[in-house]
Write a structure and sequence with these properties.
This protein has 5 helices and no strands. The chain has one domain. By secondary structure, the protein is mainly alpha-helical. The chain starts with 6 loop residues before the first helix and ends in a 12-residue tail after the last helix. It is found in: Membrane. It is a multi-pass membrane protein. This is Si:ch211-120k19.1.
């Protein structure tokens, strides 16, 4: 018995979650009339192309490697998730959006914001039957944070001297 939804359902779900996260993030600071729909489309595309399939296969593989919910196995899942999946998904988000925006240096935003984002992420204890939906919900909140954080100007950058 496969406790995970289909890969197709996951792709639709993550695409919707990523688009929703960006719209939530934008609506907090921008009137609806000024929403940047192309930004939302880019965020949704990153969710569609990478996050949906990666998370689907990652969570299935993690459950196969460490089946069950005992403290030792859950701890192993958390450690592996934090060491492998978290860096991969955060990196795909920042680098993917920079590539879609044709940034001159697609790694610049990642270099500036990866560690702060990585330190903010965590994993919760959820049974396999609810894990994909739970992670999807957390992903919505997490992606709102990433979208908002990415839009922030970096105040630590050196500003040109004024004459």
């Amino acid at each position: 018995h496969n406790p995970f939804p289909s890969s197709k359902d996951n792709v639709v779900g993550y695409t919707t979650l990523f688009a929703s996260a960006d719209l939530i993030q934008q609506s907090i600071i921008t009137p609806w009339a000024d929403i940047d729909w192309s930004q939302t489309a880019r965020v949704a595309f990153v969710g569609f192309c990478f996050h949906a399939n990666f998370n689907y296969h990652w969570l299935k593989g993690l459950e196969r490697m460490l089946p069950g919910g005992g403290a030792k196995r859950v701890s192993g899942k958390v450690v592996l998730d934090q060491l492998v999946a978290a860096p991969a998904t955060i990196s795909a988000f920042f680098i993917g959006l920079s590539v879609l925006e044709n940034k001159e240096d697609p790694l610049e935003n990642w270099r500036e914001k990866f560690w702060t984002s990585y330190k903010a992420l965590n994993f919760s204890l959820v049974p396999p039957v609810a894990r994909t939906v739970f992670v999807g919900g957390i992903t919505l909140v997490w992606t709102v944070f990433l979208c908002h954080f990415r839009q922030q100007k970096d105040d630590t950058q050196t500003k040109p001297p004024s004459h």
